[in-house]
């Protein structure tokens, strides 16, 4: 176990210095701000880079494949949190993990900044997947480490941190999008690299003093015998993977499509194994088992929610580029700029929701009800797209108001589901697994995008009404089912609010 107690760790962190919060929050706020700046900036132009023809500076990848690859990428970026969490917990400690993660991410963007074609894309993806797995969940988790269990500021600390995420996500598509059209895509990716570089500097200069003992040491370091055993397992695992990879390439099994299929399966299999292991563990008692059962419908709801939400960068990015009238009032909108909208809506609406929950006090909806309403709004965000789909032909351009409304509804849903999601995960996961709850929550998003890799390729402007109608309809129906059973889920939660 860690050398320091929870109390010692909290006391080592300067408890004031950032809007009345521990000074370490400033470090994590800006590190995560710049990390998200780089991620969302890159993501705002990545689909366009992939499907734009080679002669226009893109990679010329077929449209459907490009969307699936992007979804798989998004899935792996959050799935890798399992590895990042494990490395931090057992070997590196969270502070070092965050720093190494940032370095890998920066190199990931640098690789894309160089005009080196599809190979660079895949190398970059690998670096950013591992880097984000090391940085993102550990940064969020150190936020929690800086407050004592009774500290009332914890929730508002997380809200502030969520603002940092969204400020980064808001600004970067504007800048990266503009630079990529004025110059070229590589300049855009280079800007993302510069962003992560600034984040690393902030972290390098301030982490030691501001975070102090929070996340410094691995919480549950490997013992000498475990180290030996794990080295053996990893070596064997790596050899098996290499051999399998080699055989698959040799026999032509490893195609983009089979890889997409493999990750889609992992997206479902990994959370399922997680649940089974937690449920059957001798460390999980009866009450915790009941809470786990309650968590299953919530998790599934979150998966369907994120599946719709995360299409902002695939299906809806294509919609911005191909179906939206970008010339209004003599001004040309950059299609990448739409990617800023969700974050902008989060920043402006989050305070309103905080106020609403405060006003409602004990009369506010229960967690399962909030989840259901969140999903319902995600459904609405797709159903609203039926209006332009049914009133215009596939080759016509529609007003940007439709995408704007779509993102607005999705964010209203996000504000009901996402903030409660993480805290519900923390409260419903068995104590023995509490270190992994951050990864578990990230898995809901990873599973969603793994599912999307199969779904998004079906979208094209010719079948829009069916596409948005079916997916939006499923979401609304599922939300009604959860509403109907919300009392049952509440009971299974055994007192957790
Ligand atoms: N907007 C969120 C973020 O970037 C998306 C997200 C949700 C990511 C849940 C991971 C898990 O942090």
Which shape, going by the Cα principal axes?
globular
Total of domains = 1
What is the end-to-end distance?
Answer: 30 Å
- Mean model confidence by pLDDT: 93
CATH fold assignment: Growth Hormone, Chain: A
Largest sheet: 2 strands, antiparallel
Total strand count, please?
4
* Hetero groups: phenylalanine
Q: Which percent range describes the beta-strand content? A: under 5%
> Count of DSSP helices?
19
Transmembrane segments: 33-51, 71-88, 97-114, 120-139, 160-179, 185-205, 233-253, 259-280, 292-309, 336-358, 370-391, 397-417, 465-485
Organism: Lysinibacillus alkalisoli
Subcellular location: Cell membrane; Membrane
GO molecular function, one term: dipeptide transmembrane transporter activity
Structural commentary:
- With 497 residues, the chain is an all-alpha fold.
- It has one domain: MFS general substrate transporter like domains (Growth Hormone, Chain: A).
- The strands form 2 sheets. Strands 1-2 form a two-stranded antiparallel sheet. Strands 3-4 form a two-stranded antiparallel ribbon.
- It is globular.
- The mean pLDDT is 93.
- The site of phenylalanine (PHE) has 5 residues, from α17.
């Amino acid at each position: 176990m860690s050398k320091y107690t929870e109390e010692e760790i909290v006391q080592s962190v300067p408890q004031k210095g950032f809007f009345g919060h521990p000074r370490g929050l400033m470090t994590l706020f800006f590190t995560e701000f710049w990390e998200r700046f780089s991620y969302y900036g890159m993501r705002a132009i990545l689909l366009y880079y992939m499907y734009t023809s080679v002669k226009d500076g893109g990679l010329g990848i077929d449209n459907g494949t490009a969307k699936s690859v992007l979804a798989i990428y998004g899935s792996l970026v959050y799935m890798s949190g399992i590895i990042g969490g494990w490395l931090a917990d057992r070997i590196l400690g969270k502070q070092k993990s965050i720093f190494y993660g940032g370095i890998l991410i920066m190199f990931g963007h640098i690789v894309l900044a160089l005009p080196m074609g599809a190979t660079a894309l895949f190398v970059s993806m690998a670096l950013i997947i591992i880097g984000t797995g090391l940085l993102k969940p550990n940064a969020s988790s150190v936020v929690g480490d800086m407050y004592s269990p009774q500290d009332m500021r914890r929730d508002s600390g997380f809200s502030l941190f969520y603002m940092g995420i969204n400020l980064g996500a808001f600004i970067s598509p504007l800048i990266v999008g503009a630079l990529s059209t004025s110059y070229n895509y590589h300049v855009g990716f280079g800007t993302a690299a510069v962003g992560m570089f600034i984040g690393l500097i902030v972290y390098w200069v301030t982490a030691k003093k501001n975070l102090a003992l929070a996340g410094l040491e691995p919480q549950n370091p490997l013992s000498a015998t475990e180290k030996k055993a794990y080295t053996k397992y990893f070596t064997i695992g790596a050899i098996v993977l290499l051999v399998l990879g080699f055989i698959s390439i040799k026999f032509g099994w490893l195609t983009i499509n089979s890889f997409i299929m493999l990750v889609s399966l992992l997206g479902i299999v990994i959370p399922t194994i997680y649940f089974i292991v937690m449920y059957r563990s001798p460390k999980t008692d009866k009450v915790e088992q009941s809470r786990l059962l309650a968590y299953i419908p919530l998790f599934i709801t979150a998966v369907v929610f994120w599946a719709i939400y995360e299409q902002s960068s695939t299906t809806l990015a294509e919609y911005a580029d191909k179906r939206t009238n970008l010339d209004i009032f003599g001004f040309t909108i950059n299609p990448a700029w739409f990617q800023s909208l969700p974050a902008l809506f989060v920043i402006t609406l989050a305070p309103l929701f905080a106020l609403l929950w405060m006003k409602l006090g004990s009369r506010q909806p229960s967690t399962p009800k909030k989840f259901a309403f969140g999903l319902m709004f995600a459904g609405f965000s797709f159903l609203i797209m039926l209006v332009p789909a049914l009133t215009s032909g596939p080759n016509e351009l529609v007003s940007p108001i439709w995408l704007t409304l779509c993102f607005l509804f999705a964010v209203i849903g996000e504000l009901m589901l996402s903030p409660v999601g993480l805290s519900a995960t923390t409260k419903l996961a068995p104590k023995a697994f509490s270190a992994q709850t951050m990864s578990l929550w990230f898995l809901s998003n990873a599973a969603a995008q793994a599912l999307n890799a199969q779904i998004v390729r079906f979208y094209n402007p010719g079948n829009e009404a069916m596409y948005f109608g079916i997916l939006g309809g499923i979401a609304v129906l599922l939300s009604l089912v959860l509403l109907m059973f919300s009392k049952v889920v509440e009971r299974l939660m055994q007192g957790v609010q």
